[in-house]
Amino acid sequence: MVAPGRNGVEDSPSASSSSSHMVTNHVSSSLAASTAGGPTSSPLRSLSSASGGLYVSAPGKIILFGEHAVVYGRTAIAGSIDLRTYVSLFTSADGRIYLSLPDLCVEKTWMLKDLLKTIALNPDLSTDVPNDDSPPSLELIVPIARKLSGSSEDSSGVQHLAILAFWYLLIGVVQRKRFRDQQNGDGDGTTTDGSDPPTNNGNTSQLEDPITKDLLAVKVTVRFKLPPCVGLGSSGAFCVCITTALLQTAGLIPPPSIPADEEGSLTWDDAHLDMIRKWSAAAESLIHGRASGLDAAVCTYGGVASYKPGRPIENLRNIPNLKVILVNSKVERNTTRMVQTVKERMKRSPFIVENILNTIDSISQEVASILQKADENGGVVENGGRSATLTPAFMTEMDHTNLQPVSVGGRSSSLSSYVAGGKRGSTASALSGISGGDARSSERNEFNETFAHLNDLCRMNNSMLVALGVGHPKVDQICTLLARYGIHPKMTGAGGGGSVFAFLKPDTPSTIIGMIKDELAKLEYDMWQPQLGGPGVMLHPNKPEVFIAADRIHAGPVSSRSTTPAGSHQSTPAVRHKK
Ligand SMILES: Nc1ncnc2c1ncn2[C@@H]1O[C@H](COP(=O)(O)OP(=O)(O)O)[C@@H](O)[C@H]1O
Ligand SMILES: C[C@@](O)(CCOP(=O)(O)O)CC(=O)O
């Protein structure tokens, strides 16, 4: 039998109820809770976390090229960014399941025995189980997840989708664990891959409990460093974190062993990362409607990669010193709705839309070949400092050892100039100090050319997205502003607002970056420079800072969602999402 958790078990809340009904639904009263002392009154928060827990994080992402087209099977190029999402997971000894999403003002608890009962009443859950690593059946599990979570059928707000994805994964993990335990002779003490079962920090109480021994009473908290609902992969990172934490807790994947950063964080081997990716992609499809799987892949593996549905994600081995800026329009939107917009256009004008998608596909393919060409011509740094081409489905242990945090800004600026593409005598030309005739070395010219090319392709891709109907006036305003500097950004993610990214020439003086930032700030847009291509999902050896900081803040005023990585700006309350 597999232990229900390798993580610590927290103390039970003092006011424990033995009701077999759903216990507390804090979602609907989230804002009221905030004003009335909020999360501090949650049963979850009254628990001690002295015994430790399991901490997992996954990165956000930028789609460089190919969003929407990738939903229809075309190629996309995307990379992870250094804004991560963190989950903490404890097993609970009080027979309750807890979900805390402080950024969304969600605090929910359910009784584990309700899950148990439902499983007993659904024989299909015992028979309709994939015999491999593929994700649980959405068709089978989602109706059960809706019922158990208490989320209403017609609600599609951010909280509902996050809760639904959590429940889909939880039921799926429980179902798979029971199935594998039965196959293994119910209690042979090993995980399905033959590794030792997690020790649960020496606490065996749950193992001895006949009800909970094969079910998960978990307490899950998710904290974000990336702004939600603006195209930076918050849903992908969320699903990857929850999937990983639950699979790990159930012993369905072994503890990770591959170093992922200098702080002792670890990641999993390729087979288990692939399982995480697949389960996360299924969960994310509940949030995205029709999901391509791109977000889940990038948030799982990290790096910068080319992705085509149905094929293994292909890590781009050599990339130029890509420096990007991200601008948050602060227009939060719903990916499902944007995907639906494109679908409707496709229905109305299939021939035109197919051609637009093919054009986007050509852009992505050209980008992939530019990046390879850049390798041949020199003037590049290897992707994330890695030395191998990584096709995650076939990655080796050695490859993973190279999945270290990336510094993309370290290259000598003497090689890097950005042909801004601005008008002659425009702000950009004047400020960049680059003239068309500047050809001190052919290598430098090649490098300039690479950036000019990418800049131009960004403009084209953005126009195609506008043609698909996912533009937004605020995005247009940002594009117009940056064009004065010769920078041509594009929407990243589903569009309809959200975020905009652009390549920046690596030697752009900080004064210019400051000017751009100030201009954007006057219009109330946030701008920052994320690091591109860092590590994917990982298990942290210690409590991440984001939880320590939250503990500190806890005694003080309740924080609300932020739209910037540093949390310096407040965003609209999550409850305003009615899309
Ligand atoms: N801070 C958060 N906590 C929990 N879930 C979140 C958070 N941010 C986003 N999500 C989940 O991700 C969904 C947003 O996904 P999506 O519309 O695809 O935006 P994005 O482009 O950021 O991925 C939300 O509906 C919610 O389910
Ligand atoms: C529009 C799409 O291509 C990307 C959506 O990205 P995001 O949810 O906005 O981060 C959808 C998908 O690939 O599943």
Short description:
The protein has helices at residues 30-35, 112-121, 124-127, 138-149, 158-183, 205-208, 234-249, 270-288, 294-301, 335-348, 350-377, 397-401, 427-432, 442-467, 473-483, 510-522, 545-554, and strands at residues 9-10, 24-25, 54-65, 76-92, 96-101, 106-111, 218-224, 258-259, 266-267, 304-307, 314-315, 318-319, 323-328, 381-382, 490-492, 499-504, 526-528, 538-540. Residues 1-51, 187-212, 377-439, 558-564 and 566-579 have low confidence and may be disordered.
Describe the structure.
The strands form four sheets. Strands 1, 2, 3, 4, 5, 6, 7, 10, 11 and 18 form a ten-stranded mixed sheet that branches. A four-stranded antiparallel sheet has the order 15-16-13-17. With 579 residues, it is an alpha+beta fold. It starts with 8 loop residues before the first strand and ends in a 25-residue tail after the last helix. It has 17 helices and 18 strands. The relative contact order is 0.16. The protein is globular. Residues 1-51, 187-212, 377-439, 558-564 and 566-579 have low confidence and may be disordered. It folds into two domains: 9-313 and 534-558, Ribosomal Protein S5, domain 2 (2-Layer Sandwich); 322-379 and 410-528, GHMP kinase, C-terminal domain (Alpha-Beta Plaits). The structure holds adenosine-5'-diphosphate (ADP) and (3R)-3-hydroxy-3-methyl-5-(phosphonooxy)pentanoic acid.
